[in-house]
Amino acid sequence: MKLSVPGRVTATAVAATLLAGTALLTTGTSAGALSAPEARLAAAPDLPVANIKAHLTQLQSIATANGGNRAHGRAGYRASLDYVKAKLDEAGFTTTIQQFTASGRTGYNLIADWPGGDANQVIMAGSHLDSVTAGPGINDNGSGSAAVLEIALAVSRAQYQPTKHLRFGWWGAEELGIIGSRFYVNNLSTANRSRVKGYLNFDMIGSPNPGYFVYDDDPTIEKTFKDYYAGVGIPTEIETEGDGRSDHAPFKNAGIAVGGLFSGADFTKTAAQAAKWGGTSGRAFDRCYHASCDTIANIDDTALDRNSDAAAYAVWELSK
Question: What's the rounded Cα separation, in Å, for the pair 241 and 63?
């Protein structure tokens, strides 16, 4: 989640013109993709939390090898992007790196399109991949980034063929003021912007003293998440702590339906919240928010597992 101070951005280059063109969306199904109805309408998978934790371990290793962070314009960020891109390329996605400049440093977004689906109905899920300079950013926002990656890989494993077109995004320079995602949205043509029917944002979903918060922006998306949690017996609350402070904001401002999940940052968990969710009242949801201790040890595996499965469920339900 971003810092409260805005960043500065000047567009200097766009790799492959933001991939927003219709040609990218109509590349056809991938080699070997199943065409049977069961592949198209398969239920959302139960994501292996061990796989998501393995991605987080890689992001931690990248940060450790690059000055302790994965921040915009630093080597750790680009190495994180390269790790995610390699996984997606191997899985059969069409990937595009989008380049921009912010605060005098080069930043990157990574976009991944799953071949097939209606090019006029795009469902997108995303997360910011950068950390603050103070630490490795494993909860903020390795957690969301790893979950979105694993959802994309699950799409590939299932050879899922939804009716709508699936796209995934990993944003740069969110911590400087939601810069990467805003750059992406601002560079969409009017026609391509109208094709995006929903954007799902995942920014901090493994907080160590977690809450279960659902964005209340688009009613359909909100209900999709709430239905999932009701089905597994987990009470939720409306997300207010990070409202407008993450990458869904540029999409919402452009008139695109948005939704998402959040497990809490530096707000304090109340006694009532501890009673229904467990954890410790009177303590922040994430005491290591924007700090050097936001490491691989700063993750609640149960929250990460639950939220990742809820995210996968929403991607499957909304793209059918």
Answer: 27
Contact assessment for residue 268 and residue 16, using Cβ atoms and an 8 Å cutoff: no
Residue 174 known to be catalytic: yes
- What is the C-alpha to C-alpha distance for residues 130 and 290, in angstroms, rounded to an integer? 11
Residues 6+ apart with CB under 8 A from 8: 102, 103, 176, 177
36 DSSP assignment: S
The catalytic position among 90, 150, 174, 237 is: 174
Query: Where do the H-state alpha helices sit in the chain?
Result: 22-25, 37-40, 49-65, 75-91, 144-158, 179-186, 190-195, 219-231, 248-253, 271-277, 301-319
Question: Radius of gyration (Cα) for the chain, nearest Å?
Answer: 18
Residue 15 DSSP symbol: G
Q: Kindly provide the b/e burial profile for residues 201-240, where b requires at least 16 CB atoms within 10 angstroms of the residue's own CB.
A: bbbbbbbbbbbbbbbbbbeebbebbbebbeeeebebbebe
Percent of the chain with pLDDT over 90: 86
Amino acid identity, position 279: G
pTM: 0.90
Residue 75, class by beta-carbon neighbours within 10 Å (0-12 exposed, 13-18 middle, 19+ buried)? middle
- Alpha-carbon distance values, 209 to 105, 131, 149 (Å): 34, 20, 24
Instruction: Give the tokens for residue 262.
Output: 């959040």
pLDDT digits (tens, 9 = 90+) for 221-259: 999 999 999 999 999 999 999 888 999 999 999 999 999
Which residues on neighbouring strands pair with residue 110, listed in sequence order? 97, 170
- CA 78, CA 169: separation in Å to the nearest integer? 15
